[in-house]
Each structure stands twice: as C-alpha cells, then as structure tokens.
Write a structure and sequence with these properties.
Blueprint lengths: L12 E4 L7 H14 L2 E4 L6 H5 L5 E5 L6 H6 L3 E3 L7 H6 L7 E6 L7 E2 L6 H7 L4 E7 L11 E2 L3 E7 L13 H11 L7 E4 L3 H9 L7 E2 L6 H8 L15 E3 L6 H6 L5 E3 L2 H4 L2 H4 L5 E6 L2 E3 L4 E2 L2 E2 L2 E2 L6 H10 L3 E5 L3 E2 L2 E2 L1 E2 L16 E4 L2 E4 L8 H6 L4 H12 L13
Parallel strand pairs: 1-2, 1-5, 2-3, 3-4, 5-7, 7-9, 10-11, 10-14, 12-13, 14-19, 15-22, 19-23
Antiparallel strand pairs: 6-8, 15-16, 17-18, 20-21, 23-24
Length: 419
C-alpha cells in the first residue's frame, strides 16, 4: 500500500483517472489515510466506485465537470462542486491552475522495454493534466492494455507505484429497450455512408450503433467508445476510409465497455488521444463529415437542450456535447439530439427547460429525435420550431404542449418593427 501522507498535506489538491482507468487501489488508500492528512480537494470525472458516493470521508471535497456515475449521490447530498465548463476547456483549466494538480493518481500499463508506461484506456483529460502535475503516483496494472496515440510516461516520472493484476472496471450494462430501438432507427436514417460519428455510451447509443450495421465506411471521432464500436469494426462497417483526418483510425480518449472490448484494443485501428486533440475545435472543424449524436434530459420547444440537472441534482454534464454539437452544426455534417419522449411519466419535451441549465444552444441543434419521429430544425425559424418539436413529443402530451405554446410568443408581433 502506498503511503500518500508523504505526498499530500492539508490543503493539497489532487486528481485521478476516471471510469475504467480509475486507480481504485490508490483511491481507496486516499480514503483510508485522509483523516491523517487533513482536508484535500479532489477532481475526478465519472466514477463507478461506490465508496465515493457512500463512504466518502468529510475531509475530501470533490470537484467534477458533471454528476456522472456515483457522483450523482454526492450531488444529492450537496457534496459535489460542478464546473460549468466544456470538456475541451479542461486542458486549459489544468494549465492555468484552476483545477487541483499537486498530485495525480493514474492507472497505467506495465512498462515497455524502454521503461515507459501507457495510460491505456483512460487518456482523455489525464494526458493533459500530467503535464501540469508536480507528483504522479501510479497503479501499474498487468491487465491494462497499452494503447497508442498519446505520449507514454517513463517510470522515473512516478514518485511511487503499486503493482496490481486485476480486471479493468467494466461499464454498467443497461438492457436496450424497444423504445431505444425505435429512436435508434430514426437516428440511423439520418446517417449517411462515409459519415464520421461522435456518440456516447449507454443503452440508447448502443441501440444506435447496432442499427448502423447496414451502413458503409463509417468513421469514429469521439470522446469515448464502447462495445458497439467494436461490433461495427468486426462487421466491416467502421473503416474510417472517408475521414478527412486520421483516415482508417478510430480516434477516442477513453474506452468504457466490457472486457471483450479491452482485450480487443490492440487488434483494432484505434488511437487514444488527449482532450486537447479529441475536442479541439481546430481539429473538429476539419471533419466535414462529422455527425454528433448526443442525448438529453429535456428539450424545450425551440430546441434548447438540458443535459445536466434533474430536480435539483446534477446527473449529467456539459461534457463534450457542446464541443461536438457546435462543430457538427457549424463545420461538420449534422448535430443530432436523441432522447425518449417521456421520463418518469413526464414529457421530456417542454415549453421551457424545467431544470434551468441550457447545455446546448438551439443554434447548435439540427435534429431532435425521439421514438415518435424526427424534428428537423436546420434553417427553421423560431416561430416554426415549436410546431416541429411538438410533433415528436409523446402523443399524450402534445395537446398540453400546444396549449402552453399559445400562451407564449415565439414570433414577432405585427406591430414590432424588424431590423
């Protein structure tokens, strides 16, 4: 066990890798030792560690870019600070000292013949944070696959290491429901052969990827990949042959899936790049075929998207949604927001965003897709948008939405001069 007390003192700031690359052994050491260290501030993205939600010592205050995974429980308890930032901003926030980076905890692959370790399946913000972190401590996991695409870290860079031999954390599995399959079919109809797609993880993204098996020469440039991407590689659908940049390569920052995915990474054409590349607008602007496929908690009648909060609790994030949606709508091919028309018995299509935060502007949304159809918003004036969005709402809620629409003004008054 690593003694973190020689590297952390009261008031220190640290970060650690997220999701499947989370250095669980080191995080548990922190939880065990922090009472002796004193108050510390920690940054982490998505975490699946149940101890973070239920057993977090009072000495640790947590900062994140969203309320993903077990961080939802912290948000509900009022113990989570959330940065209102795009994922693409994280490299600059680390560089400028806005994020805690006295110490970084990482999980890496065993060193190669030159003594260098790979960040494996968790490059994302970690590769950028490493450049600005004074002390690095590593869990060297024999089962972490080495990956290509980012700079490796020499063993000499680590102040301390602990060796493990354990399976990577796998993504929680959620069954794909018929409603997801109907939404996926509507999304797939908007994808053309040769497109480069960005998509997340979860049951709906899994359904979308499964529905694309009849397409050809698709590419992927995304913040993360899951098993569905591997399936498309194996069936010959995902070749990346027509990508404007990185042709033939899957470009991502993280892998969040099953052991089957992790074991296959060395056999498929994938490169793991840092956020400073995957989400950089200068990079994304070169992908003229980019199709961004993102989800939401709620969408209002003009196409504004809320994907962060529900009933006072942060359950999502800005993440990379705006980075990719804006690039796809502005310089790429199309920006798609896909969601179920109802959640917990209520309509997800609303006159105004009930939970407040606008994650993605209506100007960056080309299509809103539900199981009831596709609302095309590209080139659509504000006065017409609500009618199109209502058409994809659940039929049981359309009349109420139309009635509320009549009380709002979405078009200019006849007495208003336009300039």
């Amino acid at each position: 066990m690593v003694d973190l007390r020689q590297f952390l003192t009261a008031g220190s700031g640290l970060w650690w890798s997220q999701t499947s690359a989370e250095p669980t052994v080191l995080v548990r050491a922190l939880l065990d030792q922090v009472a002796d260290i004193g108050p510390v501030r920690a940054f982490v993205g998505m975490t699946w560690d149940p101890a973070i939600g239920s057993e977090l010592p009072e000495e640790i205050s947590v900062l994140s870019y969203g309320g993903l995974g077990r961080l939802q429980a912290l948000s509900a308890e009022g113990r989570l600070d959330v940065l209102a930032c795009h994922f693409s901003s994280l490299p600059r926030l680390f560089a400028d000292g806005h994020l805690p980076c006295d110490v970084g905890l990482v999980q890496v692959s065993p060193p190669d013949d030159d003594g260098n370790c790979s960040l494996g399946v968790g490059v994302d913000y970690v590769a950028d944070a490493v450049e600005h972190t004074r002390v690095l401590i590593a869990e060297i996991n024999q089962q972490m696959p080495p990956t290509t695409g980012s700079r490796r870290i020499p063993l000499s860079r680590f102040a301390a290491t602990v060796e493990t031999d354990r399976p990577l954390l796998t993504a929680p599995t959620t069954a794909v429901k018929p409603v997801d399959q109907r939404i996926a079919a509507n999304v797939a109809a908007l994808i053309e052969d040769g497109d480069t797609i960005q998509i997340g993880v979860g049951s709906l993204p899994a359904a979308v990827l499964a529905t694309l098996r009849g397409h050809r020469d698709l590419g992927v440039h995304s913040g993360m990949i899951a098993d569905g991407v591997l399936d498309l590689v194996e069936t010959g659908v995902l070749t990346g042959a027509r990508k404007e940049i990185d042709p033939g390569l899957i470009v991502t920052g993280a892998a969040l899936g099953s052991s089957r995915l992790y074991h296959s990474l060395e056999q498929i054409p994938v490169e793991f790049r840092p956020v400073s590349y995957t989400h950089d607008p200068r990079v994304l602007s070169q992908l003229r075929s980019l199709v961004a496929i993102n989800s939401a908690i709620e969408v209002d009648l003009t196409g504004q998207v809320g994907a962060e909060r529900r009933a006072g609790v942060t359950v999502g994030a800005i993440g990379g949604q705006t980075d990719f949606s804006r690039a796809a709508a502005l310089t790429g091919s199309r920006s798609i927001i896909a969601l179920r028309s109802t959640a917990r018995g209520s309509s997800t299509i609303k006159p105004t965003l009930e939970f407040g935060a606008v994650t993605t502007s209506r100007a960056d949304v080309d299509f809103v897709v539900t199981e009831h159809g596709v609302a095309k918003l590209t080139g659509c004036p504000i006065s017409e948008r609500p009618h199109r969005v209502i058409e994809v709402a659940d039929p049981a809620h359309r009349e109420a939405l139309a009635a509320q629409l009549r009380t709002q003004r979405f078009e200019p008054s006849a007495n208003t001069a336009l300039h």
